[in-house]
Fold:
Amino acid sequence: MESEPHPHRVVVLALAGLLPFELGIPHRIFGRAKDPAGRPLYEILTCALAPGSVRTDADFAIQVEHGPQLLATADTVVVPASYELGPVHEHGRLTDELAAALAHIRPGTRLVSICTGGYVLAAAGYLDGRPATTHWASAEHFQRLFPAVRVDPGVLYTDDGDVLTSAGVAAGIDLCLHVVRRDHGAAVANEVARRTVVPPHRDGGQAQFIQRPVPEPQLATTTAARAWVLDRLHEPLRLSDMARQEAMSVRTFTRRFREESGVSPGQWILGQRVERARRLLEQTDLSIERVAQESGFGTAQSLRKHVQAALGVSPTAYRRTFKAAATPPSPDGPSVGGGSVH
Structure:
């Protein structure tokens, strides 16, 4: 009888001046991910530069049991934001203590930063030549301090394979959900999102909401149009028909939609179609041609183009990766083994 696989270990590095909300994101998101039998898919542990009390930016400290040696056991390391990064934030230089801690990380370990945690990865050289983001208010300073990093100040998160970064605060939730989705598929990530009561997916390329005013409560929103679209993703969709659901002109609807979602109607529909295709690939045995039709891409060629662009793999490869993971184990133990808006 084969032993059960060990859960993927996520180690969160707690630095002085940390933001408690962001420290809790990895524990909340990864900790809710389960396999079909209800077993945890991740083990989440926290370490500090030294065991003991760690200051936060609130009126309390946290007690951390593990020191930096724990980083050597990580499959994924997460660095949340801190307001006390000292020379890391001021000069782009690691302290000796932080450099010694990061030296424990094994080659090939996946690295994730939330908000200004990206300063730590950049100062350590992990982001040189790579795309990255951080909180929009820090992006200009971040780019000046680390000119070798390809900073994108407008996105929610970046994914460069083994190194991922997020913008501020809630974007850390989006990034962690993205990691769960990448590791275990949309069904697992959507269930985590449902239990956490957050949107299941905001694409990494979606704009940070920089100085975007909240729509006045008395103004009509685009909620009804979005619900109307979700019932018709398999059909050709026209912008004029969407606007009609809200009794708006196309121009007003397009402006309002972007104000509320951060993306154009066409980009939003494309993202929803990709998400439907993912669910169908994971949870059904429909042919690729039928998945293309049901998700609104029309043809298998269009489906392949958009799935490859969004996920980095073909529909067939995606199904092969995640369909097996969605199959519950047997009672005897673990198994061996173009749509567009016109």
Observations:
- The mean pLDDT is 87.
- The longest strand covers residues 8-14.
- Residues 265-283 form the longest helix (19 residues).
- DSSP finds 14 helices and ten strands in the chain.
